[in-house]
Every structure is written in structure tokens, then in C-alpha cells.
Amino acid sequence: MDSITVFAPATVANVACGFDIFGFAVDNPGDQITLTARDEPGVRITDIIGDEGRLPRETSRNTAGIAIQTYLKHINRTDVGVDIVLHKQMPLGSGMGSSAASSVAGVYAINELLGRPLPIMKLLPFAMEGERIASGSAHADNVAPSLLGGFVVIRSYQPLDVIRIETPASLFCTLVHPDIEVNTKDARFILKNEVSLKNTIIQMGNVAGLIAGLMTPDYDLISRSLVDVIIEPVRAILIPEFNEAKQAALDNGALGCSISGSGPSMFALSRSAEIAERVGAAMQQAFLSVGITSEAYVSQINRQGPKVLVGEQVPS
Amino acid sequence: MDSITVFAPATVANVACGFDIFGFAVDNPGDQITLTARDEPGVRITDIIGDEGRLPRETSRNTAGIAIQTYLKHINRTDVGVDIVLHKQMPLGSGMGSSAASSVAGVYAINELLGRPLPIMKLLPFAMEGERIASGSAHADNVAPSLLGGFVVIRSYQPLDVIRIETPASLFCTLVHPDIEVNTKDARFILKNEVSLKNTIIQMGNVAGLIAGLMTPDYDLISRSLVDVIIEPVRAILIPEFNEAKQAALDNGALGCSISGSGPSMFALSRSAEIAERVGAAMQQAFLSVGITSEAYVSQINRQGPKVLVGEQVPS
């Protein structure tokens, strides 16, 4: 095989109460990468489509490029030469794990192209390296769900301990991306370094409730637990009409609604595709009422992670 | 029926990472209460056995007394007259939910004696009233598991939201009570009101991991998640030889070990009765090495809550 095209899913990190520890993947949107083997060693970005020229083309500054480079170095295959074509299919700086999806797609693709020398779970550190370039720190809450699919808990960073949680089949996600931009570094900068013990206890209760709600499954418990008393109150001020869009989601039957990652995208979870569609329309309307256009995406929780679109997948 | 004797189980609150939100009941020890109906209205404490005269005999200052009084007032049965004999079968101020067990035993007993006018779940607020007298605040993390049995999450206090989590059948608890005393109010007073965001994230990861570990079940995950970076480092200084006793538990195969409630008792969880017994002996030895005697209790997680020992249980 000398060429492969891989899709990796967008992700919702934090998921209301689980700052830095929860994330899940969605079926739509996502990023697409095509790798083509070439004789000359080295990783080269030949084209990026859909980024309006904003992403770095230099391999060592590009999330997918650096992830692939780090991977090849680890498996002692710096003799490998690949050309990368990246198709960005979601907005940058959106809070939907755009950089993570590119990074995961890249690492997954090169591993498949080489006949899968490493099991999927072992790819995480290389995808995280790509994430480090994009956000300044190697977070796993977008990369892990994009790579593994489903809902994940990052129980610990040192050592890295990622747990996959089963989710109910009829849980649908609405993602709404208002056409404004929030820089991940800024979104992190405005957070306070200290949390009251009282709010820590409330947040822990919701973290426990959400995991129990997902695993049982118990939709009412999921709904009651989708509450963030620590991060959302601070970051919501970066998103115009946040409260109105959230209220519109809840009024239209969403189980819960909060910021996706560091924003400005917002996510809502609902019990059916129909409710999730209605929730999306209502949220878009809330943004539009102050002149902000937006994109809405509705899909199930993605359980698969990356998938090969063109080229041969290594049998698992 | 004019007399009933009820046992209510001791409990481990906090359970390492879950300060104020986690608690579980054990089969042993526990408290025992006997209620005897009498013609004259009013709640009267006729005897308390096993407290060395330290608990208040005045009904409105006794946890079981106040819980029963609050309950009777709520169901408009202040015409009822009962004599209470309380058999304390565990040390006071031990961190094993001594006051909660008395309170729960009392409320459960009066509700059964009257033919169960309220379902068990509805008894929680009255038992919490008893707890308020003992500890200064109406916490539920001892009362709820003592009343409901099993492992519970207090997801929220306002409104009260208690969730029961299934636990693996072969999970055994070791409770070791060193013969020293820690006042619950002191143990709370030394806690800081602020937590670093970093430690909040670590703790949330462990909270999520412990719930997932219990529900899966996954003993390794339970073990990795039984970590408390917020409360234990502060409260451990109140317990001489805490670090040595904890290390002895882990060295002897415990999945995890931490402070039970606000201490000074310590709990450990293990995968078998045999390991739990060995862990208990090793912890007692650690305390004894500095001249501190202790009691050790080994039992499964209690799944039943209170039980009627003498008298007729209302069919459920």
C-alpha cells in the first residue's frame, strides 16, 4: 500500500463537569488526511485544504506533521518518506478538537500505512505531541476520544491513564459553532488557579453522577449531572449569547448544554436525533438574534475513532 | 407490635477521593436500637449502653432521639410515645459513622414500628437531622449508605440527590480504629477553603475512575482511583502512624487505604476476606509499634442497610 486516506472525528472535551478529564467523539464533523509514500525520507506537507491558509505548512510546526514525525522517530523508521495532504473539514479554534483530529488522523494513517506496527492505544502519546504544538500543552481530552472513539476519562496524566466509558446508543450530540473565535491559550489564561472546596465538592458530585448516568444508563441522572460550576461561569463570558443559546437548548429538550472544549462551540446532549436537531436549530436562532451566524452538527457519539476512507485497513 | 430492635451499619465516608460525596456501609460494626411503645406521648431515652456515659440522654440533644422526634413531627404523629434503648456497638468519634448509625437505626425502627408509613428513601432527611446534632452540619455521606446500604454518591445536597452504585461482590473492607480520638468539627476546621485547580482535576479523575471501576467492575481501576490529593494530606497529620499503617495495608495487598470519614479510623479495600484480614493485622501492628492499641473489623460492603433483629419487619 502506498497511499491511505483516514478520517478522524471531532471531539467534545470537558463535557460540562469534567474539565481536562472528560471527552467524547462525534460522527460529524472531523478531519481527513491522505498520506502518500515516497522514496525520499522525511515527512512533508504538500497541501492543506480548508484552512484558508492559516495552518503552518512546516512539518515541525504542524500538529499532524509533528505527530507523524514523533511516531516515526519512536519506531525507528525515519527512513520512511510521506507526503501529507490535510483536508480540514471543521473550523479552526472552534473548541471541537480540530487540532486533535488532524493529529490523530495523521498518526493513525501512518501506523496503518506501515502495517500497524503499534496497537491503536499506543498511538496516544504521539497524537498528544501534535496537540502540544497547537495548544501549548499535551492535553489528552480531545486526542484520546478522537483516537479511541466513545466517551473517555483521562483519570490521570502522570502516568497517562485513559478509561473508555460505555454510552447509551440513543445519546445524540448537537454541536453549534458560532462564527467567532476563542484562542485556547486565552481561554485557559482566564481560569483561576484556585477553586473553592465547596465548588470542588459540587463538581465531584456531578463527575460521579455523569459516569454513573452513562454506565447505568440513566438519562435523568445524565441530565442532572451535566452541570459545571467551575469553568463554565468563567469561560461563558467569552461567548456572546451563551446563556440564551444554552437556555434555548434546555427549553427544547436537551439533557444538558455547555461549552465544547474551550469554546466558542457549544454542545448539547439529547435522547434522540429529532430532539438534537431541534436543539441545534434553537441554539442557532439564539446566536442569529444578535447577528452571529453559526454551523450546527448533529450526530451520535462516535464509537469507532478514526476510519480508513481510501486504502486498505490492516485487519484488527 | 409494641417493641422492635434494629441494627444499622457503620459506614465509611469520603472513600479517599470522594470528600463529602462518597460513602459505603459495612456489615460490621454497627449500632443497635430498641424502641418500645408506651401510652404517654413523647420520645424518651431510657438507656444507652456502651457509650461510657458520654452521649446526651436528653432526647432533643441525642442523634437518635432528635431523628425520631423530627420524623414523628413530619408524619403528624406526636401522639406516639416510645422508650429508646440504644446499644452503642462501635467507638464514638471514630470516623465510622457512629452517630449516623444511631440516627438511622432510630428512624428506621420507628418507621417499622408504625407499619412503615414512609418508604425507606424518604427517611433520609430525618436521619440527617440527627447527624446535624452530632457534627454541626447535616451531612449525608454516612447517613445515606447506612440507610440504603451499599455504596452511595451524594451527587447534590441542594436538592438532595443520592445515587446507589453497584459494587463487586468480592470487595472486602478493613476498618481499623486506633484508640485515639479526633473531633469531627476539628477535622473539618483544619481543611483549607481553597483547592488548586490542578488538584481538583486530579481528584475528579479519581472520582470518575472509582465509579467506573466499581460499576465495571475493574479492581485495578478501583485501586488506581483510591487516591485523595486534597483531604488526606491535611487530615493525616491528626493520625499518628498514618503513613506507616497505610503502607502496611498496601504492602499486604489492599487495593487502597485512606481515612474513614474524618478519622481517626482508617479503611482499606481488598479483593478477598483473606487479604482484608491480613491487611487489618498489618495495620494494627503499625499502630502497636508506637504503642497505640486498635480494633479491626473486616466485612463485605453491606448491601441491605438497617435490619430488624427482634420484632416484625413490615413486608417490603
TrEMBL record, chains A, B:
InterPro entries given in the database record: GHMP_kinase_C_dom, GHMP_kinase_C_sf, GHMP_kinase_N_dom, GHMP_knse_ATP-bd_CS, Homoserine_kinase, Ribosomal_Su5_D2-typ_SF, Ribsml_uS5_D2-typ_fold_subgr
Location within or outside the cell: Cytoplasm
An example Gene Ontology CC term for this record: cytoplasm
GO biological process terms on file: threonine biosynthetic process
Record: residues binding ATP: P91, L92, G93, S94, G95, M96, G97, S98, S99, A100, A101
EC number: 2.7.1.39
Keyword Transcription: no
SUPFAM superfamilies: GHMP Kinase, C-terminal domain, Ribosomal protein S5 domain 2-like
Signal peptide: none
Known pathway: Amino-acid biosynthesis; L-threonine biosynthesis; L-threonine from L-aspartate: step 4/5
Occurrences of domain GHMP kinase N-terminal (ranges): 67-150
Entry keyword annotation includes ATP-binding: yes
Keyword line: Amino-acid biosynthesis, ATP-binding, Cytoplasm, Kinase, Nucleotide-binding, Threonine biosynthesis, Transferase
Catalyzed reactions per annotation: L-homoserine + ATP = O-phospho-L-homoserine + ADP + H(+)
Molecular function terms from GO: ATP binding; homoserine kinase activity
Family: Belongs to the GHMP kinase family. Homoserine kinase subfamily.
NCBIfam families reported for this sequence: PRK01212.1-4, thrB
Function: Catalyzes the ATP-dependent phosphorylation of L-homoserine to L-homoserine phosphate.
Protein name: Homoserine kinase
Gene symbol of the encoding locus: thrB
